[in-house]
Write a structure and sequence with these properties.
The chain is an alpha/beta fold. It is about 40% helix and about 15% strand. The chain has 25 helices and 22 strands.
Length: about 650
């Protein structure tokens, strides 16, 4: 199991080898003969009861690391993850393997939550997936007391650290599970963490002792580069033609995502866009079309990507610089998970430093502006002074921004600061369930619907009683399974009938909620302490400065710059990024041409023959293909399937 890329940070713990039971489970359920990277070390550590932190780059096989030991250990494994889509996907995959798993997340019906928890208490499930917002709920904590738990797995563990780039306050409740689960080990997994965040994760989760396994963050197949261009349009056309295949293009504004998508569509590219402002079902459809290869290019804000499991992404383009190298590494790392050569390109137009410094000011506005926002929130929610304590209300952010003249991008950072200061609790993860109400009479309905739509409604009338009298909750996934009709088609048919006033259809969506965690005070009395504002400002500035250094550096290897940021020592450059190639210019086509001929002729002993084995690893595949094509067209090579014949 030795892997030169594995680094073990734990002192006095021998590096273990794979056990027969673990490899047996791996073969039985996943069909793999051996573990990759540090999977085996993590499995042995958690199976022996040790708190464990695993640092695995994107595509490193995190799920295997907790699923294998959970199958071998007695009890239910609790998996905390922030992504509902990822929960559903992993639960579905486990069930296909014959492994019992369930999930609890925002928007589920109360009776389904009860049933899932009761089944875990009875020992029927090996995995319980949970959103971090549910960890602190009274219902879950009550049921947990009667549940036999093997261990707790915390995915995206960097979210628990307020020094990380994606801190989520809801993660802090996970550490409280220690009181109800004495002696049970915790496994934390993440793909992005600086040395400071590594220590903070272990502290927040109450590790008995530091125990970190890490893989190198190096991705040899991923080629990083900066593309300096005056306009996105010209630069994109060039890059998309240069690197064909599945693509993600990131931008930091919703409107820009739509504009770039429209521009590329006009040029004939297969493209769509994705941002948080789209209806949830529409987001699901677009993601599925891209993931299944019906769409080549996804233009998106950073709302797209976490939990995406598409191995054959060949290109990730950033039109705007992210505000941290953690975010850039995470997003760029969605390319090339299958190990094939892939590219991460960051566009630069000379305005990046100004943009990033502006982001610093937007994330940490003057304290007076935060105090003003607090007052506006209380006005909007009609909370009187001295009232509102622990009252949760729906908080329609877009409506609030319009009414009080705030930009959407500036509100979320201020909400985060108010939450850290202890004045509010905000969540935008509460997901509602789809609702349907047939407003037409039965005779009107059947005079309107025909064919497949009639088949759909025959099922709805059998499945949901009272649908003519009031709204009923429906599940499009269940309807799809029962009728064989794709979810997208169900959605489109119901929307169309809603426009005809035959039904009232409210698709599921995520609704943000806000709670005052203390009685309302006047805005001028809101106190933002130094550890919330000044200390976080200094750390955020440090992250911004690291991105600026990455952009402005024209001599050092880009892979090395990223690895050093994550505390990893680098002996030499990658040889593939734009800076390495500038220091070591690529051979010209003529050079490659000559070298291939020389390699061929050196092996030619007596006349033409087939089956030459050439070492051409130092050349790029596209260059080799170009030269071979040229030689064939010139009559120097004959192609026979995948074999080449040199003319004598």
């Amino acid at each position: 199991m030795h892997n030169p890329q594995i680094m073990h940070d734990t002192q006095n713990i021998p590096s273990p080898s794979a056990h027969d039971w673990a490899e047996g489970l791996l073969r039985k359920y996943w069909g793999f003969s051996s573990f990759r990277g540090i999977q085996c070390e993590i499995i042995d550590s958690i199976a022996s009861g040790k708190d464990t932190l695993g640092l695995m780059p994107t595509g490193g096989g995190k799920s295997i690391s907790f699923q294998v030991p959970a199958l071998a250990m007695e009890g239910t494994c609790i998996v905390v993850t922030p992504l509902i889509a990822l929960m559903k996907d992993q639960v579905g995959r486990l069930r296909q393997l014959g492994i019992k798993a369930t999930a609890i997340y925002s928007g589920m019906k109360h009776d389904k939550i009860i049933a899932a928890l009761e089944n875990c208490i009875l020992g029927d499930y090996k995995f319980l997936y949970l959103s971090p917002e549910r960890v602190g709920s009274e219902l879950f904590l009550t049921k947990l007391r009667h549940m036999k738990v093997s261990f707790v797995c915390v995915d995206e563990a960097h979210c628990i650290s307020q020094w990380g780039y994606d801190f989520r306050p809801s993660y802090l409740a996970i550490g409280n599970l220690r009181k109800l689960l004495p002696g049970k080990p915790f496994l934390a997994l993440t793909a992005t963490a600086t040395p400071e965040v590594i220590d903070d994760i272990q502290e927040k989760l109450g590790f008995c002792q530091k125990n970190v396994f890490r893989m190198s963050f190096a991705r040899p197949n991923l080629h990083y580069s900066l593309h300096r261009t005056a306009t996105d349009e010209t630069g994109l056309d060039h890059i998309l033609n240069l690197y064909p295949g599945s693509t993600i293009i990131y931008t930091n504004r919703r409107q820009k995502a739509e504009e770039i998508s429209a521009m590329l569509g006009m040029k004939g590219y297969s493209v769509t866009f994705f941002h948080a402002g789209l209806p949830d079902l529409e987001k699901d459809f677009r993601q599925r079309d891209w993931q299944e290869g019906r769409i080549r290019i996804m233009v998106a804000t950073n709302a797209f990507g976490m939990g995406i499991d598409k191995p054959d992404v060949r290109l990730v383009v950033h039109l705007d610089p992210p505000d941290s190298l953690e975010q850039y590494y995470q997003e760029a790392g969605r390319a090339g998970r299958d190990g094939q050569p892939s590219h991460a390109v960051l566009f630069c137009n000379g305005k990046e430093i100004t943009t990033l410094q502006g982001q610093l000011q937007r994330t940490f506005p003057p304290k007076e502006k935060i105090q003003e926002l607090y007052d506006h929130i209380c006005y909007f929610l009609q909370i009187p002074e001295g009232g509102g304590y622990e009252r949760t209300r729906e908080f329609k952010v877009q409506e609030f921004c319009i009414n009080f003249h705030h930009s959407f991008s500036e509100v979320h950072p201020m909400l985060s600061l108010l939450e850290l200061a202890g004045y509010i609790r905000f969540t935008d993860e509460e997901e509602t369930i789809s609702r349907l109400y047939i407003t037409a009479t039965r005779s009107q309905l059947y005079s309107t619907v025909h064919g497949e739509t009639e088949k759909l409604f025959n099922y709805l009338l059998r499945r949901y009683t009272g649908i003519f009298q009031e709204f009923v909750y429906i599940d499009e996934d269940d309807i799809s399974i029962a009728t064989g009709m794709p979810v997208k088609e169900i959605y489109e048919r119901l929307v169309a009938l809603g426009q005809m006033h035959v039904v009232r259809y409210i698709p599921h969506k995520r609704i943000p909620y806000l709670t005052l965690t203390r009685h309302r005070v006047e805005g001028k009395d809101v106190f933002i302490p130094p550890h919330v504002y000044e200390e976080r400002y200094a750390r955020f500035k440090k992250r911004i400065d690291a991105v600026i250094d990455y952009i402005t550096d024209t001599s050092n290897c880009r892979t090395a710059l990223l690895l050093q940021y994550f505390g990893e020592k680098v002996a030499e450059g990658c040889g593939n990024c734009d800076n390495c190639n500038a220091a070591n210019p690529e051979p010209t086509t003529e050079d490659v041409y000559g070298c291939i001929l020389a390699d061929l002729r050196a092996q030619l002993h007596e006349g033409p023959k087939y089956g030459y084995e050439l070492n051409l690893s130092k050349y790029k595949a596209r260059d080799i293909e170009h030269v071979i094509r040229t030689m064939t067209e010139d009559g120097e090579l004959l192609q026979d399937g995948l074999r080449l014949k040199l003319r004598g």
